[in-house]
Amino acid sequence: AQSVTQLGSHVSVSEGALVLLRCNYSSSVPPYLFWYVQYPNQGLQLLLKYTSAATLVKGINGFEAEFKKSETSFHLTKPSAHMSDAAEYFCAVRDTGGFKTIFGAGTRLFVKA
Amino acid sequence: GAGVSQSPSNKVTEKGKDVELRCDPISGHTALYWYRQSLGQGLEFLIYFQGNSAPDKSGLPSDRFSAERTGGSVSTLTIQRTQQEDSAVYLCASSPYEGEQFFGPGTRLTVL
Asked: Is residue A104 less than 8 Å (CB to CB) from chain B?
């Protein structure tokens, strides 16, 4: 069965610092992996996705994530945090053979001035 | 183009009443999903529809919850005999085959 674990329900960084949000997954088949962002009082929108092409995936707003099969991880990074990055981030996994998508519990990112 | 729309945006109901939540997916998207997001919680999968296949109902929390999708388009999530623990934001998303999900703005349900 699929599952997603996001380590850390809250992450706080200073403006300009590295952002690292962790995501580990389990899947019985090669997965599709996604990161979504939810800004305050807004709906979820896609940041980036991995669909078995390049293992390093670049998304919007300077975010990227690397698929590491050996570690079953898909951590999200951004070299330099901006105040506007403050939001909740969700990692999600979907088996390539189906449509059911499981989301992690989310990580709320705080950015300090 | 038009995105996923949901109605109503807010619904306040009394405990024990039935409610219906509506989702209009993006035209041409074959998959439609319902999730529940409770305060401070992640997204809880409820159900998904894919084309003409039988829906995956494995996430519905009880038999008070049901959903249908008519004509492969509009979907309705029904909650019967609502309870206070049903209070949450109910999110709908649609997806093209093998694509990411596009989310609607959600319906905030409050059960008094």
From this structure: yes
Give the pLDDT band of residue B52 (cuts 50, 70, 90): confident
- Say whether B103 and A100 touch across the interface (CB within 8 A): no
pLDDT at B1: 56
Pick the residue of A90, A101, A102, A108 with the most B CBs within 10 A to test the interface with B by mutation: A101
- Fill in the DSSP letter of residue B39: T
> Taking a C-beta distance cutoff of 8 angstroms, is the pair A103, B46 a contact?
no
Nearest to B100 among A43, A49, A105 (CB): A49
Digit-coded pLDDT (tens) for A47-81: 999 987 788 999 999 999 999 988 999 999 999 99
Q: What are phi and psi of B84, to 5 degrees?
A: -60, -30
Sign of the alpha-carbon torsion through A79, A81, A85, A89: positive
Asked whether the beta carbons of residue A101 and residue B91 sit closer than 8 angstroms, the reply is no
Q: What confidence score (pLDDT) does residue B89 get?
A: 95
Q: Say what the pLDDT of residue B54 is.
A: 87
Nearest CA among B20, B4, B10, B6 for reference residue B82: B20
Q: Do the chains contact at A49 and B45, CB–CB below 8 Å?
A: no
- The residue type found at A74 is F
Which tokens in the block code for residue A68? Answer: 């590491």
